[in-house]
Amino acid sequence: MSLKITDECINCDVCEPECPNGAISQGPDIYVIDPNMCTECVGHYDTPQCMEVCPVDCIITGVEESREVLEERYRIISGQKVA
Questions:
Q1: How many domains are there within the chain?
Q2: Nearest of 16, 10, 12 to residue 37 by alpha carbon
Q3: Angstrom distance (rounded) from CA 62 to CA 26
Q4: Is residue 83, in this structure, part of any structural domain at all?
Q5: Could you tell me the pTM of the whole model?
């Protein structure tokens, strides 16, 4: 797991369309991030776009993952050959 949305989420709807992997969706109470789809925007952007647009800074690092792990997940999600 990389990023996580905390209970401070106000359901403002700005993070979901920013995720290039489709990892963010509406949960029962707040938005949630699918840890199997989140690459912290590795492969797309230099910084996590959801964190950039969140007006209440409720998106945090859950369990830190190395850049290599995030890059491998990006390659799997995007259909690129995994080394």
A1: 1
A2: 16
A3: 18
A4: no
A5: 0.84
Domain of residue 38, CATH code: 3.30.70.20
- In angstroms, the CA 11 to CA 29 distance is 8
pLDDT tens sequence across 13-71? 999 999 999 999 999 999 999 999 999 999 999 999 999 999 999 999 877 888 888 88
- Number of H helices and E strands in the chain, helices first, is 2, 4
**What is the residue range of 10's domain?**
3-78
CA distances in angstroms from 9 to 27, 57, 60, 71, 74, listed in the order given:
11, 8, 11, 27, 26
Please state, in angstroms and rounded to a whole number, the distance separating the CA atoms of residues 5 and 61. Answer: 9
What Rg do the C-alpha atoms of the chain give, in angstroms?
12
Instruction: Please tell me whether residue 32 adopts helix, strand or coil conformation.
Output: strand
